[in-house]
Amino acid sequence: MNFTKGEVIAINKPLGMTSFCALAIVRKRICVRLGVKKLKIGHAGTLDPLATGVLVLCTGKFTKRIEEFQMHGKEYTATIQLGATTPSYDMEHPVNATYPTDGITRERIEEVLKQFVGDIEQVPPTFSACKVSGQRSYDLRRKGKDVELQPKQIHIDEIELTAFAPETMQMSVRVVCGKGTYIRALARDIGRALDSGGYLTALCRTRSGEQRVENCIELDGFEEWLANQTIETNEDE
Known about the structure:
- The chain is built from six helices and 14 strands.
- The strands form three sheets. Strands 1, 2, 3, 4, 7, 10, 11, 12, 13 and 14 form a ten-stranded mixed sheet that branches.
- With 237 residues, the chain is α+β, with helices and mostly antiparallel strands.
């Protein structure tokens, strides 16, 4: 492997860790192995701390291809709690409102999901990295400021209802989508379309482009994986 020339590494990001932190761990361990102080590395699509799954990292000259990798289709599995919302549309914040769930059935959910397939508009979560007047939206929200974000065009290829438990009002879905889709916002919008509320209780990115979660390197096993790699260096670069 030649990390300066450029490599693509897919790791399974652990629960509770930011994408930047996972990237920093990988960078530090590669630098130690190479005996260098710095290495250019970036990721092709952020995962929230409460999400797990495929995080694609590009090193060296392959960082120029990050935008290309970001355009690749992605697949997620998600669990949504119906009947309530949180400010961030996931479990980072406590429930701030509850809603009736009368009349929510598996059949009704499957019918509602159809309206989210194709080219749709989606308002990003205000607890997100979207910029407002040069500042991150989540920074403004954490300072107690109101934020209004404009809807963005996204594309969803497939939504499949994989489970529904009427007794707990939890549903699980598989989503295949394009760049810029917020699954947290999708949970919010599904809840609204059911005349109720919804927020994420679990999220995993199972695929990004050709990279699948079952083939990813576990972060706690990255050092061992790295030790087993043959490293090439370019002295003239």
